[in-house]
Each structure stands twice: as structure tokens, then as C-alpha cells.
TrEMBL record:
Entry protein name: Kinase
NCBIfam families: PRK06762.1-1, PRK06762.1-4, PRK06762.2-2
InterPro entries, A to Z: P-loop_NTPase (IPR027417)
Organism: Bacillus cereus
Pfam families: AAA_33
Residues that span the membrane, as ranges: none
Superkingdom to which the source organism belongs: Bacteria
């Protein structure tokens, strides 16, 4: 096991689907460089675990543990996703405390119309439509 070598900064990017969270998170990871941990809610929930975003789903604990892993090992840890405050709010507060308040949280607040416009330009636009976006909004 490696010894902690960094004071780690947690960056949380939240917002609706198609708001640009993943794009910005990847750009930040590229900017900060090697060893920057990027934890994506979609990757953990949809790709790794194949679960729906319901209260208490398996991804909740795994997102928490992966994000915690970066403290002391990575200078920057980026957590991004919709991260609905009803389901993930307490977890996010606990992570901020775990990172000794060395955290920045951003919410991407786009209108429903802009969210739909952006969604319609994405490769995964066929996975779900405007009706789903409206329910989630």
C-alpha cells in the first residue's frame, strides 16, 4: 500500500442530464494531469453495476468508496454525475467532511429547453428521450 502523499482536493460536478458535467470533468482531468481520479456516476452505475438510479442502489456505496480512495493518493479527485440531492446529498456532505472541507461543488443549472437541445446532439440520444428528460428535470 502506498502512503498518503497529497493534500487532495475534491471537485463535485452535479447537474441534469446533458448539462456538460462529463465533458468538463474530462477536461479538468486532462488539465490537472496524471493521477487525477475521475469518478463518473454513469460509469459506476450504468456500466459497472447495471443498476437504475433508485434510492439505495448499489452504486451509492461504490461511488463513495472509489471517491474516498483518492484522498491522499491523488491531488485532485473529481466526482461527477446527476447525483440527485435526495439520494446522494448525505453522501456528498460526508465526502466533503472526509476531504477535510477541501472541496468545491458545482451545480450545472441549465433550462429544460437547453437540456433537451443538448441531449439531441449526443450519441446516446436514442437511449432515452425528451419524456425521460422532463421527468428527471
Amino acid at each position: 500500500m502506498s502512503n498518503p502523499i497529497f493534500t487532495s482536493t475534491l471537485i463535485i460536478l452535479r447537474g441534469n442530464s446533458a448539462s456538460g458535467k462529463t465533458t468538463i470533468a474530462k477536461q479538468l482531468q486532462e488539465h490537472f494531469g496524471q493521477g487525477t481520479l475521475l469518478v463518473s456516476q454513469d460509469i459506476v452505475r450504468r456500466d459497472m453495476l447495471k443498476v437504475h438510479d433508485t434510492m439505495g442502489n448499489l452504486s451509492h456505496d461504490l461511488l463513495f468508496e472509489i471517491t474516498k480512495y483518492g484522498k491522499g493518493k491523488c491531488e485532485f479527485v473529481i466526482l461527477e454525475g446527476i447525483l440527485n440531492s435526495h439520494r446522494y446529498g448525505e453522501m456528498l456532505k460526508e465526502l466533503i467532511r472526509y476531504f477535510d472541507e477541501n472541496a468545491f461543488a458545482y451545480y450545472f443549472d441549465l433550462s429544460l429547453e437547453e437540456t433537451i437541445r443538448r441531449h439531441n446532439t449526443r450519441d446516446k440520444r436514442h437511449e432515452f428521450g425528451e419524456d425521460s428528460l422532463q421527468k428527471w428535470y
